[in-house]
Amino acid sequence: MMNITQVGIDLAKLVFQVHGVDARGKVVLRKQLKRHQVAVFFAQLAPCLIGMEACSGAHFWARKLCEFGHTVKLIAPQFVKPYVKTNKNDAADAEAICEAVGRPNMRFVPIKNTEQQALLGLHRARQGFVIERTAQANQLRGLLTEFGLVIPVGIRSLERKLPDILEDAKNGLSGVSRALFARLFEHFRALDRQVAELEREINAWHREDAASQRLQAIPGIGPLTASALVASVGDAKVFHNGRQFAAWLGLVPRQNSSGGKTNLLSISKRGDTYLRTMLIHGARSVLLHLKSHPDRADGWLARVATRRNPNIAAVALANKNARTVWALLAHGRDYQAGYRSVNPTAA
Questions:
Q1: How many CB atoms lie within 10 A of CB 85?
Q2: Distance from first CA to last CA of the chain, Å, rounded?
Q3: pLDDT classification of 297: cutoffs 50, 70, 90
Q4: How far, in Å, CA of 72 to CA of 5, rounded?
Q5: CB count in 10 Å sphere of residue 313
Q6: Is 127 helix (H, G, I), strand (E, B) or coil?
Q7: Residue 162 in 3-state DSSP?
Q8: Contact of 252 with 314, CB cutoff 8 Å
Q9: Residue 200: CB atoms within 10 Å
């Protein structure tokens, strides 16, 4: 096994499939490993290039194998799929990963450390609670409508109106219905408390991180978006420029071009849906503020908002903010409104 130079690992919960080749590309290893055997096997293997799909557990194993001196690269699953030659199975997947990791133009996913994963865990947990809270609010509002009780749209409207409804003895609610709504409302408030507590933890992390605070200076980016971006990106220098970073977030147009004719479609929506959603929602808030204060409507954003649909303007601003985020993270700069890059004059 000393001549193995490149390895592909198909990750799993219990049984891992390993495929290895030598410097000439000849297959020298096809092996199944149980979970407890993986660390022992690679600790005894000479340092080599290891590829894995960026899936559940990938960042843990990447950090673990890097400790043994290996070079580990994570690949998005959609970039591995074209290299699967036959029907899908673990051995074919491991072979495809091994082939993909050695391609010179392959794009890789940055390996996250434990702090980044912990912060992203807070974001994902908060997102889950927000979804549950919205579902519970919609259920409460829908059931109340069956009794002729209509609550205005909005989470806070529900918080204000429902206690009065529960205390009103003349609204026609039976004892069973009143008890049910009280139970559902308590569940709603428990979810709301969870969201608030997780937001406090995220904000506390944000206040301690200089990079996250620099991003907050960008209009349309708050503590939640800034912290999520810093934790997800890690080293921004893995992206060559801001456009590549925006493309990684799915904020650039898809193409259907041929024969020298360029045809741009809607945004690709690739990459992290959570980050893209946060950036676009932040852009919507900036546009709403611009609409409320027309006296401040000047510059690039005002021109875009005037001639294009609000949704298109929001995505355009989100794209611009993504490029600004890359510049601040990659070069360690502070945000400057109206900044213009200057190309060096040719000698």
A1: 9
A2: 54
A3: low
A4: 12
A5: 22
A6: helix
A7: helix
A8: no
A9: 10
CB within 8 A of 39, min separation 6: which ones? Answer: 64
**What is the bridge-based pairing of β-strands 27-34 and 15-21?**
antiparallel
* DSSP symbol at 112: P
User: 172 in helix, strand or coil?
Assistant: coil
Residues 318-331 pLDDT 10s = 999 999 999 999 99
CA distances from 237 to 43, 212, 213, 255, 267 (A): 30, 16, 19, 25, 24
Record: fold of 6-101? Nucleotidyltransferase; domain 5 (3.30.420)
Read off the tokens for 271: 């990459």
Look up the pTM and report it. 0.85
The DSSP annotation for 293-325 comes to: -GGG--SHHHHHHHHS-HHHHHHHHHHHHHHHH
| 258: its two tokens | 């041929």
The domains of the chain are located at 6-101, 114-208, 215-331
Q: In what order do the strands lie in the sheet with 49-53?
A: 27-34, 15-21, 6-10, 49-53, 71-75
At 14-73, the pLDDT tens digits run 999 999 999 998 999 999 999 999 999 999 999 999 999 999 899 999 999 999 999 999
Q: pLDDT tens-digit profile of 252-290? A: 888 888 888 888 778 888 888 999 999 999 999 999 888
Q: Taking phi first (over 0 means left), then psi (-120 to 50 degrees means alpha), and beta for anything else, what does residue 52 get?
A: beta
Give tens-digit pLDDT for 87-112.
889 999 999 999 999 999 898 888 99
Nearest to 226 by CA among 317, 325, 319: 325
